[in-house]
Amino acid sequence: MSIGLLKVLFTKILNLFFIFAFMKQKLFTAAVAALSLLMCANSEAQTATSLFWRADSLQVKEIVSQQAVQYNFVGHHGPAVENSHCALRIYFNDSGAIDVYSKSGKQMELREYLWYPTAAQQSNEGAGCDEYLVGRTVGVGGIALWDGEKEVKLKATKGRTARVGEIKNGSFAEMIAYGVEYKGELVDVSIRVEMTNKSRVAKVIATELNGKKVQFLTGINYHKGETVEYGKKYIAVWGIHPADVSQNPSPLGAGMKFKPSKFEIVEQTQDMVRIISKPAVSISTQVVAASIKEDELNTAEEFVSYMSK
Question: What pTM does this model have?
Fold first, then answer.
């Protein structure tokens, strides 16, 4: 074989080697990028939402209803939003209540279990449970109005809208009641729950959408035997709720932080620590839910300490 032919073969082999090395590097780089994106997505994807009609189970962003009470026809009774530690739902009725789905804090669950995992899923997959009992109250930071003498539920005379969606670094669920009778006029009231990707704290925002000043009533409910503590800036409740969905309920925590300058009454009733706002177009509070099944806030002492800071 001539020297010239050897040079040609050597050059081709060298070119193939460099092409192979380049492709290998590209594949490696692509794999690293994909893994990085996956890890980033997992670390960022710490909120989720769910809203659907039970008739078809199709996830939607909005439900507009002239019939103000769709409690039994909307999935998990209303729009829901989730972070790593719990899920919160707003009831699609006149109660203005916010309810809690408790978790261990180790996985996202709302879209998979749709609020109601089976006993087997709880046992085998570590799924959470609906153990919180709202009763006739506004639950965990839910909203009613105050007319100066008594509580006014958000009884909508012109329909109700439910929404879920995304915010910067998180997700929200919202319920709007149209035409609520309040002090001789009609008001439209929005309850919005926002969760961010890297915090267990949820923000509840209540707004009168026409710019009218009203007094909002909110707070945290409790049951007999629970630990109840509150101050000028916080509410903390810890204990076992009466058996309802779960026949073997475990201790739970529910708390609220608020700005005392925005509220004129903080008081304990027979089933709630409630706060009543000064006249305002909008208010906001922060709510936290915890469970004995999680690693961070799993005792009454730890939970009260966290809320009172």
Answer: 0.85
